[in-house]
Amino acid sequence: MEFSRRRLLANSGWATGGLLIPDIAFAANPVIPEATIAARGTAPVIPKKVNRLFNTRPVIDQPNDLQFAANGDLWVLDQKNPNAVFTVNPQTGAVISSVVTESLHGSGITYGNGAWFITSTKVAEGYPSTLKVDPRTGKTLGKWETPGWGIYGSYLTRTRQPGDLPLESGGHGVKWAGNGQYWLATPAGGKLYLINAEQGTVARSIQAPTIRTHGIALEGDYIWCAGSDEAEIYKLRMSDGGIVGKVVLDKKADPSLHGLDIKDGVLWYCDAAQGWVCSLT
Prior knowledge:
Layout: H1 4-12, E1 27-28, H2 34-42, E2 50-55, E3 63-68, E4 74-78, E5 84-88, E6 95-100, E7 108-112, E8 115-120, E9 129-133, E10 140-145, E11 150-151, E12 174-178, E13 181-186, E14 191-196, E15 201-207, E16 213-219, E17 222-227, E18 232-237, E19 243-248, E20 260-263, E21 266-270, E22 276-280
Parallel strand pairs: 1-11
Antiparallel strand pairs: 2-22, 3-4, 4-5, 5-6, 7-8, 8-9, 9-10, 12-13, 13-14, 14-15, 16-17, 17-18, 18-19, 20-21, 21-22
């Protein structure tokens, strides 16, 4: 569902606050096609063991996404406001440094063009945005409205209370794709978007495997995409979103599934609910 006023603004290229609204600017209650749901159910299971590597609490309260740095360090995005990015030794879990950003309830982090790109899933005013952030200072270098932002799931029946952030939700997982672009998962839009990083515009999109997509990781011609409600990670063809396999976690026994990345062929994920960082082998 898309609203005509938002569509009109998108077509005209203007938005409140001077932000350029991408092709899809507002969505609500996305519907996953029956064929996609069926493909989820029949996708081959890729056996993996969950390894609890370390717990980030109390220093990192709500680790919501992960990104490996080129030197092997691990960046962890804490969604507790104000959002900070922590540089962590992935072997020990020791915090090396931290930088506070302007993101609120952030759900995704990646690195490209010399900067972090962070999905500010919530905002105090305006629309949910993706931020280009200076890793040294946390300063916002650029800001673009996140495509597909809107309302989904339990937010559809909630009532905003005084002092609460808006119910509208923006991007979740984000990972750098190269060539000045990144992939982005936005639950309310029901899509995974390939974004032109410095313009914030949509190059193309593929069908999301589920509504509450979270972390994503890129491996060759495939995207690994976390489905938090299902506690499953789907392996998608980058070309068309086709589901070719899935990793199934134990919803009761394993840490919850939020952020995701891949290093040397090994998937890593984090649990914002209890602070765990895990690998899958």
